[in-house]
């Protein structure tokens, strides 16, 4: 294991991460010293301290990795990918903890949730007794398990009017604007992939660059748009930025009442299919059909394989005729129709299709935004939402989940095996579109399904053993492994996850990273043979 080379490249990454920290630092300084229109607490000191710590760690790693070539091979690339994500979450959590917004463990959870584009949050408003003014605990009960109540303390004090003491802002809305921007920016960075963005700014990494790209990008098929990995990553970065700016412009244009800050953070969280919102009621707080329509459209755009966009720009429209693309659109449309139909008796046709379609797309794209409290819906649409969480988007997109390409490959494998029963002498090749699926990739896909099933069962059991009711536990493990961000019942869309125990929070951060890196990369580190020098 060439640890010095890993330290050298990791130090370069942390220097660039320090440069990104300048953005929220500048915003915090602006609100604290140049503007009086921001009643929320400021976090300039926290971001400045984080910036200095990041540079100090980077300099230390740079010293350790001095006089090295920076050449990476497969094993070092795998370890580096995981280390980049862990170091990013640790450094990114510091502004939340140093500002007093969250405890260190909750801050680490929040940062990992952002970087993995999960969107689950630990931020919750403190509650106070109206008579004594003393802080009291929150109590959350699963309505389907009335004898089970979860108790937790809020993390963020509300912002009150200095004249009459009335609450102006609470929950997420009472957090510093700089911290809210940082949360959304983390999702934007993690959506395209830290390593993919990393490859656009670092020098050529030789053979390690290709392995870094392949280990971090999602899906069973890794599309390289250009022969050079750095050039591919650069094109992805430009397209990603363009879609983000386009959404910001559309949100501001179609909804003049939406502040630019909200449009910026919402766009960061949409195209990355992350789901962090700057409002307590998420997208429901805007109550605007145009805003919901734009966000819905960009959630879909973020869940499509980004290589297809480059083919479209080069007028290679035939490249879009792949089963993966039509399977994704088909499952999304079927999910919208089924969920909406079950809601018509209660909500009416127009409202049912508006709320049902938005929530179906939000769940399948693993964004996690909500425009209505779906936890109050009947069981049938909730079950469809759970299924959509596992399906996910296309390979090569920012979405999580299992990915539609894997479902298509699994279908082809099953069909092939069934036909081989009565045609044992026939030899047939597996294809997804015009791409041949060799036996190695087919076995990997089947292994992936087994790992997802195993992690879901074990994860749900661990949560139940930690005191979580089974329905909530199943929703939580699906939320973490698929990087969705919202679940059901006690962990529903309007609730914080503060009720989780410290052990469950640590496990949740691991599950989020496991799902974002699609299991194999992280699980390799637990093999003894991985660490043996060969």
Structure description:
The protein is mostly helical. 59% of the residues lie in helices and 4% in strands. The strands form 4 sheets. The chain has a two-stranded antiparallel sheet with strand order 1-2. It has a two-stranded antiparallel sheet with strand order 3-4. Strand 1 and strand 2 form a beta hairpin. Helix 1 runs antiparallel to helix 5 and helix 6 packs across helix 8. About 1% of the residues have low confidence.
What is the overall pLDDT average? 86
Q: What helical percentage do the residues reach?
A: 55-70%
Identify the overall geometry.
globular
Which sheet architecture does the biggest sheet show? 2 strands, antiparallel
Radius of gyration: 23 Å
The topology string of helices and strands comes to: HHHHEEEEEEHHHHHHHHHHHEEHHHH
State the secondary-structure class.
mainly alpha
Number of strands: 8
Number of helical regions? 19
Q: In whole angstroms, how far apart are the ends?
A: 9 Å
Low-pLDDT ranges: 203-207
Q: Strand order of the main beta sheet, please?
A: 1-2
Strand content: under 5%
């Amino acid at each position: 294991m060439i640890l010095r080379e890993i330290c050298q490249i990791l130090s370069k990454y942390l220097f660039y991460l320090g440069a990104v920290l300048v953005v929220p630092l500048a915003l915090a300084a602006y609100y604290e010293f140049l503007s009086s229109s921001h009643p929320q607490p400021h976090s300039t000191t926290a971001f400045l301290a984080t910036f200095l710590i990041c540079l100090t760690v980077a300099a230390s790693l740079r010293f350790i990795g001095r006089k090295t070539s920076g050449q990476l091979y497969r094993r070092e690339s795998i370890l580096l990918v995981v280390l980049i994500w862990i170091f990013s979450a640790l450094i990114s959590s510091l502004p939340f903890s140093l500002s007093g917004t969250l405890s260190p463990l909750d801050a680490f959870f929040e940062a990992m949730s952002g970087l993995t584009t999960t969107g689950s949050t630990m931020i919750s408003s403190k509650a106070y007794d109206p008579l004594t003014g003393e802080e009291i605990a929150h109590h959350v009960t699963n309505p389907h398990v009335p004898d089970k109540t979860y108790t937790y303390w809020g993390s963020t004090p509300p912002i009150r009017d200095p004249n009459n003491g009335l609450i102006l802002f609470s929950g997420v809305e009472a957090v510093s604007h700089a911290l809210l921007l940082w949360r959304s920016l983390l999702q934007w960075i993690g959506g395209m992939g830290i390593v993919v963005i990393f490859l656009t700014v670092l020098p050529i990494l030789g053979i390690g660059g290709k392995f870094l790209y392949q280990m971090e990008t999602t899906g069973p098929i890794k599309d390289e748009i250009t022969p050079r990995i750095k050039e591919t990553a650069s094109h992805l970065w430009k397209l990603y930025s363009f879609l983000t700016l386009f959404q910001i412009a559309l949100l501001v244009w179609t909804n003049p009442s939406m502040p630019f800050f909200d449009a910026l953070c919402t766009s960061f969280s949409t195209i990355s299919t992350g789901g962090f919102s700057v409002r307590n009621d998420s997208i429901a707080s805007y109550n605007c059909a145009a805003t919901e329509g734009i966000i819905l459209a960009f959630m879909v755009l973020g869940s499509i394989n980004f290589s297809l966009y480059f083919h479209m720009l080069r007028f290679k429209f035939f490249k879009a005729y792949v089963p993966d693309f039509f399977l994704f659109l088909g499952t999304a449309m079927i999910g919208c129709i089924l969920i909406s139909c079950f809601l018509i008796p209660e909500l009416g046709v127009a409202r049912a299709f508006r709320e049902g379609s938005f929530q179906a797309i939000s769940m399948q794209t693993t964004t996690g935004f909500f425009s209505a409290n779906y936890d109050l819906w009947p069981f049938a649409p909730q079950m469809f939402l759970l299924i959509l969480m596992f399906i996910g988007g296309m390979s090569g997109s920012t979405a999580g989940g299992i990915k539609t390409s894997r479902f298509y490959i699994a279908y082809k494998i099953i069909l092939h095996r069934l036909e081989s029963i009565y045609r044992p002498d026939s030899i047939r090749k597996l294809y997804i579109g015009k791409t041949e699926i060799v036996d190695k990739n087919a076995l990997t896909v089947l292994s992936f399904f087994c790992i997802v099933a195993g992690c879901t069962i074990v994860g749900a059991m661990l949560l139940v053993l930690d005191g979580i009711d089974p329905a909530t536990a199943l929703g939580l493990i699906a939320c973490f492994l698929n990087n969705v961000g919202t679940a059901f019942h006690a962990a529903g869309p309007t609730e914080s996850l503060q009720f989780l125990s410290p052990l469950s929070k640590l496990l949740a951060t691991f599950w989020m990273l496991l799902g974002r890196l699609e299991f194999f990369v992280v699980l390799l580190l637990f093999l003894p043979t991985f660490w043996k020098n060969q």
